[in-house]
Design brief:
alpha/beta; 3-stranded mixed beta sheet; 104 residues; 2 helices; Hypothetical Protein Aq_1857, Chain: A; 4-stranded mixed beta sheet; 17% helix; globular
Length: 104
């Protein structure tokens, strides 16, 4: 089980925390949106059920059960935003907000 944070992503997170107290960055499963469930990041507190990874003095936390399903997790920054890739597989079928059915 692992999380990897690219150097560009580490730099962006460090820039965000300039002049601020550093808080843990939570990686979580975001179930909202048209694209189906995906990983997202937010500031949070550590919990006893979390795996903790430290990059450039910033802690990245993720629920151990989710990490087991999603590992490996890769966090990168390109252009205008973060990209989180993982071993999570779609639950099958089509995802999205269209009113039609899959294949129509």
């Amino acid at each position: 089980m692992m999380i990897n944070v690219s150097k560009p992503a580490q730099e962006q997170v460090r820039m965000y925390f300039e002049g601020k107290e550093i808080a843990p960055v939570r990686i979580f499963l975001n179930t909202a949106g048209c694209g189906g469930p995906s990983l997202a990041m937010a500031l949070d507190e550590k919990k006893s059920t979390d795996a903790v990874f430290t990059f450039d003095d910033v802690e990245y936390v993720m629920d151990k059960d989710l990490l087991e399903k999603a590992s490996p997790v890769e966090i990168d920054f390109a252009g205008t935003g973060f990209r989180l890739d993982s071993g999570l597989k779609p639950a099958g079928g089509c995802t999205g907000c269209s009113g039609g059915t899959c294949g129509s």
